[in-house]
Amino acid sequence: MGGGVHRAVDLETGAQGMTRGSNTLGGVAQHFTLLAVRCARCERRGRLRINHLLKEHGPDIPMPDLRQRLAQDCPKREAALYERCDVFFPEIGAN
Ligand SMILES: [Zn+2]
């Protein structure tokens, strides 16, 4: 106990992030109503309603985590690592 000083560093890094606010689903929801989703490995592409995603995953889920969850819906999710599906969000630069 008693070691709280280094915390200040974390706060500073968090505050300076230019993409702060768009790294979570809740942040993205402030700018978009539909989330464009594409997969780097298969033909999958589309748009998901952010309202629906919020209900399912909550506003605090980080976008990288959401990518992984969405990739679970892909046909190649169980392929070998080097050819496994990898979902990304082309309209959001923060991932
Ligand atoms: Zn895919």
Helix-strand category:
alpha+beta
Bound molecules: zinc ion
Radius of gyration: 16 Å
Q: Low-confidence parts lasting 5 or more residues at pLDDT below 50?
A: 7-19
Number of helices in the DSSP assignment: 4
Shape: elongated
Question: What strand order characterises the main sheet?
Answer: 2-1-3
- Determine the mean pLDDT: 81
List how many beta strands DSSP finds: 3
> Which series of helices and strands comes N to C?
HHEEHHE
Distance, first to last CA: 35 Å
- Kindly state the percentage of residues in helix: 25-40%
Could you characterize the architecture of this molecule?
The longest helix is centred in the N-terminal third of the chain and has 10 residues, at 7-16. The protein is of the alpha+beta class. The protein is built from four helices and three strands. Helices cover 34% and strands 14% of the residues. The relative contact order is 0.20. Mean pLDDT is 81; it is low at 7-19. The protein has a domain at 25-88. It has helices at 7-16, 25-29, 50-57, 63-71, and strands at 34-39, 45-49, 87-88. It has a three-stranded antiparallel sheet with strand order 2-1-3. Bound molecules: zinc ion (ZN). Zinc ion binds next to loops.
